[in-house]
Design a protein that fits this description.
The protein has about 260 residues and is α+β, with helices and mostly antiparallel strands. The protein has helices at about 5-25, 45-60, 90-95, 165-180, 190-195, 210-225, 250-260; strands spanning about 35, 40-45, 65-70, 80-90, 100-110, 110-120, 125-130, 135, 140, 155, 180-185, 205, 225-230, 240-245. The longest helix is centred in the N-terminal third of the chain and has 22 residues, at about 5-25. The mean pLDDT is about 95.
Length: about 260
């Protein structure tokens, strides 16, 4: 199956599971919520959605494995592995804040080859496949053309359990607050990356993220003409637990500031 066709099938699967998530959003109560670790919440909705995704995606590529947040499958593929977050923004979901999404990426060996992010409340589906461009609801998208941080609207995610690097993070945040048009914190890294890809945000940075938080968004940003790096300027953003996504104009200045305040 060619990548474009495969990506569109993944989009359809995401929308189908998104219907389940939306149907359950008004049924959730406090007894349904579990605490995995400090400030990390999960419900039956996350787990059931992930099981559905695993089942659907297993039909598309039977030999593929899974890197999934709720670990509903421990299968490892020799070549292909799906990277899944069934509900990125669980805390938003639990509190009735309508900003969350499904995030799915496909890894071939060590290379991302497709990504899909579906935000059900907006009915917006962002997707990309390797060398195929990036799209939102069927229309081509690209990162912004903003050339200076002083004119940029930025996004981040606040540390919520790993505070070991908090001082450096706050130094970067303080500089950005003084030297940009503003910094937003939505509560879903996947959505932040999707918004960078379509030019709503000019850049996004965060640390202590997992592969399922960033994989789909990373390939969508890159296919939209953007840059995705770790804080040292390398490409270890998926498993290195730190990410900076931006348009190409802002990449150098943003990395310089992160190195100055975060890594020094």
């Amino acid at each position: 199956m060619e990548l474009q066709e495969l990506t569109k099938k993944v989009c359809s699967i995401s929308k189908e599971v998104g219907v389940f998530i939306q149907n359950e959003s008004t049924k959730l109560n406090s007894e349904d919520i579990e605490v995995k670790s400090k400030n990390s919440l999960v419900s039956y909705v996350d787990k059931t959605a992930e099981k559905e995704l695993v089942n659907f995606l297993s039909v598309l590529i039977p030999e593929a494995g899974f890197i999934a947040e709720e670990r509903t499958s421990d299968k490892t593929g020799k070549v292909y592995n799906w990277i899944i977050d069934p509900l990125d923004g669980t805390t938003n979901f639990i509190h009735g804040i309508p900003t969350y999404c499904i995030s799915i990426a496909l890894l071939k060996n060590k290379e991302l080859i497709l990504g899909v992010i579906y935000e059900p409340n907006q009915d917006e589906i962002f997707y990309a496949w390797k060398n195929g461009g990036a799209y939102l609801n069927g229309k081509s998208i690209s990162v912004s053309s903003t050339k200076e941080i002083s004119n940029a609207l930025l996004a981040t995610g606040f540390p919520y359990y790993d505070y070991k690097r908090l001082d450096g993070y706050l130094k970067v945040l303080k500089w950005l607050m003084h030297n940009s048009r503003g910094v937003r914190r939505i509560g879903s890294a996947a959505i932040d990356l999707a918004y960078v890809a379509c030019g709503r945000f000019d850049a996004f940075y965060e640390y202590s993220l997992n592969p399922w938080d960033v994989a789909a968004g990373a390939i969508i940003v890159e296919e939209a003409g953007g840059s995705v790096k770790d804080f040292k300027g390398g490409k270890n953003y998926m498993f290195g637990r730190e990410i900076l996504a931006s348009n190409l104009h802002l990449e150098s200045e943003f990395l310089d500031k992160i190195k100055q305040f975060f890594l020094s």
